[in-house]
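User: Teach me something about this protein's shape.
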Amino acid sequence: MPAEALVARSNPNPKLPTSSSSVSNLPALRRQAPHAQPSPRPALLMCAPKVYEVSYVINPWMEGNLGHSSRQRALRQWRNLYQALSSVAQICLVEPRAGLPDMVFTANAGLARDGVVALSSFAYRERQGEEPLFRRWFEEAGYMVIDMPRETPFEGEGDALFSADGMRLWAGYGFRTALSSHAALQRIWHVEVVGLHLVDPRFYHLDTCFAPLEDGSLLYVPAAFDHASLRKIEAFYPAEKRIAVSEQDGLAFACNAVNLGRRIVLNRISAELEEELRQRGFEVTQIELDEFLKAGGAAKCLVLKLTPSLHCGSNADDPMRAELLEV
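Assistant: First, the predicted structure itself:
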């Protein structure tokens, strides 16, 4: 579907100001969008696992884990991740809603940059109820919200990752996001969009097997991609910049890492990979996140990068935040 065919979905809450549009009139919208100033502290969106559980199967990780998740353990692990990230980033919280257990994986809410967000259009109906909740959060935070039509699946930062310099957008397709969505992403941010075809259902989102790091290197699982995609990756990243992880680390979602400056926060990994990252100058923080692996997620799935200038002071105490950290 061409980008010009994208249309805005109606605002689900008429009391909120309408700040949504189609991609076809984006040039005017981009001039109206909040101007992002450089910020020393990144901003991230997280959602506490207060309703988290494995209650359906939409990826191979969920198979065999129906009803086997522990919400209390998930909250402890999530809180550890929150505390590790809040030392280097502003953390914003969105309130979960009962019946939407995967809302904790905020990376799939959309793709946000420079005050504009491309809202996700979830492939599975089990997650489509999250869309109006994330829409409202972004609108209230001051973002310009751009919609994908229902017939064009797009699952946000889970399948779209900017290179370190921000000039290229790596976009996955094959399981959750349609190749046809890539033209819209190019039109929104006027960057080169490079499609990568995912072929292993265990790595159903790009961020489960591909992590562009801020020093210009790459953490990735080669077996997750077809040959044409591997050629694109190898053409962009020289051999000394590519870190191909082992199968063991890949299945522990080592590539599902949050990289902020020299800090990398991720699930438990092998001693060999940790040493490799430290030799490259990274400070590695490992956090047990196996409770979320039951649903097919880890560190990166649990956060979404935001426009920092819109969220100054987001780590300030409020009742919801205090309650979460005391449980």
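Now, about its shape. Residues 1-18, 27-36 have pLDDT under 50 and may be disordered. The first strand starts at residue 20 and ends at 21. If you'd like, I can walk through any region in more detail.
User: That's plenty for now, thanks!
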